[in-house]
Amino acid sequence: MPGHRRGARQLRRPPVPPPATAAPPATAAPPATAAPTAPHTRPAPHTRLASPTRPDALTPAAPHTPALTRHHPCPGQPDVTCADLAVPLDRSGAVPGTLTLRAAVLGRADAPRGTLLFLTGGPGQPGVPYVPRIRSRLPGALAEYRLVMVDQRGTGGSAIDCPALQREAGSSDTVPPTAGAVTACAQILGEKRNFYTTADTVADLEDLRRALGIGSWTVDGVSYGTFTAARYALTHPGRVRRLVLDSVVPLAGPQVLYEDSLGHTARVLRAACREQRCGFDPARDLAKVVRRDGNGVGVFNLLVIAGIIDPRLDDPRFGILDALHASAASDRTRLDPLVAGFSGPGEETPAEFSSGLHAATLCADGVWPWGDASAPAEGRERALAAAVRRIRPADAWPFRRETAGAQGIPLTCLPWPSSRALPAAPHRTLTMPVLLLAGDRDLSTPVQWARELAATTPRAELVVVPGAGHFTQSRSDEGARAAQQFLLR
Question: Phi and psi (nearest 5°) for 375?
Fold first, then answer.
């Protein structure tokens, strides 16, 4: 989501380039238990209702001593130690049960600069399978840090499995699922849907820190992982030495109508056209196409995902600029198949990306036109329609403003049942050194969000990577270099 991971959908389109090859094995890890927008107006939130199943507080009802167990080499990564962390489903104790999270540790407990916690996004993406990618991108930093990654609650081995939603939405934020698939997922979860807020994950991360036996660590988050990382830092500021936020989601939560991303599209298309010397205005072509064909959501989804794979939009497999121009001239034979292919059924299994967790967390965390997650279903559609009407057409151009209310994020949470909302963070400002990374071609988490956070963060350093898209540390050498320089200061 805007601040979530944007995974590329793989069915009926050219494959995504494979991850970078992992770096050579490092020293084997010891057991993991070793000690040592242009500003936009949000509607006023709905008054929070008391949860029908539990209070907002995440304080355990009884003492809880976290521990990592079942240490073993991670599959395919013999020098990385995997272990399990048991956490309460409901920290108030009202609903019994535990969840088992998988954690991965690379490096020594006495690493010179301590421990680096790296958080993936989504929400819905696991962490452990991405250790090879991160170690290949940050080798200099990981010579000085111990790396820890975790499958957050509802992902990986404990992934929420909602078959219909998984099939319809996959890992996309923007493809709208049917209301039936959404409500079926909520029914599968039942009252457990109340326990997948980012605040629950923050409490799990604090358990992980305690289980590792460390007093503080450095945290690096990407996409929706930036929201989780920032919420952890706002909740436990004394536990965070440094913070890297790559592809920034605002501290108040994702912009659920995506109007900043819609409006950023013209700049991204025109920059790509200048580089390719295309000789026409692709933004005007897009405006003509979506008004003629009513396919704004599909075109937006295409551009968001294709921009993750190829932020310069010059990949010949897609030929997006030429396809837009041809469609504007009434030849739809190139653009329409691209739109359909990128909006097709998702291939990811829940363990690879959980659409159910994505829905449960986004619908709990968001500030919606109808209020927060506790708002009743009655009146939501009217509130959404009114919010769309308040968007200035110029702010959404080249799309129509109606695209904002028809894309996947609001249409996932519109039918989601009233649930426990994200509790407020105890602090409002990040006080530790913070590196903000942004790609100027990113349509998932537009650069404006990083600039706005930099303006309100006392010790922030903003690096905007020209020509880069989403997740600069993974997909841009300049982004990875900036992260390592910051981590090694």
Answer: -65, 140
Among 213, 58, 225, smallest CA distance to 125 is for 225
Locate all alpha helices (DSSP H) within 45-128, ordered by sequence: none
Q: How wide is the angle at C-alpha 253 spanned by C-alphas 94 and 483, nearest 5°?
A: 110
Residues in the chain: 489
Rounded CA-CA distance 355/154 in Å is 10
Residue 160 · residue 169 · CB < 8 Å: no
CB of 267 closer than 8 Å to CB of 398: no
Reported pTM: 0.88
From first to last of its 489 residues, what are the pLDDT tens digits of the chain? 443 333 344 333 333 333 333 333 233 333 333 333 333 333 333 323 333 333 334 544 556 799 999 999 999 999 999 999 999 999 999 999 999 999 999 999 999 999 999 999 999 999 999 999 999 999 999 999 999 999 999 999 999 999 999 999 999 999 999 999 999 999 999 999 999 999 999 999 999 999 999 999 999 999 999 999 999 999 999 999 999 999 999 999 888 999 999 999 999 999 999 999 999 999 999 999 999 999 999 999 999 999 999 999 999 989 999 999 999 999 999 999 999 999 887 788 999 999 999 999 999 999 999 999 999 999 999 999 999 999 999 999 999 999 999 999 999 999 999 999 999 999 999 999 999 999 999 999 999 999 999 999 999 999 999 999 999 999 999 999 999 999 999
Q: 246 in helix, strand or coil?
A: strand
**CB 11, CB 347: distance < 8 Å:** yes
SS3 218: strand
CA distance 383 to 413: 13
- Sign (positive or negative) of CA dihedral 277, 281, 287, 290: negative
What number of CA atoms fall less than 13 Å from residue 17's CA on the CB side? 12
Give Cβ neighbours of residue 274 (< 8 Å, ≥ 6 apart): none
**Euclidean distance between CA atoms 310 and 467, whole angstroms:** 10
**Quick one: tokens of 143?**
């010579």
d(CA 337, CA 339): 5
Which residues, 6 or more positions from 330, have their beta carbon under 8 angstroms from its beta carbon?
none
Q: Provide the token pair at 284.
A: 């005007």
Alpha helices, H only, 138-278: 139-142, 163-169, 179-189, 198-212, 224-235, 259-276
User: CB–CB of 247/223 below 8 Å?
Assistant: yes
Exposure of 367 in the CB half-sphere (CA atoms within 13 A): 14
Q: Please choose, from the candidates 161, 117, 162, 177, the residue with its C-alpha nearest in 3D space to the C-alpha of residue 142.
A: 117
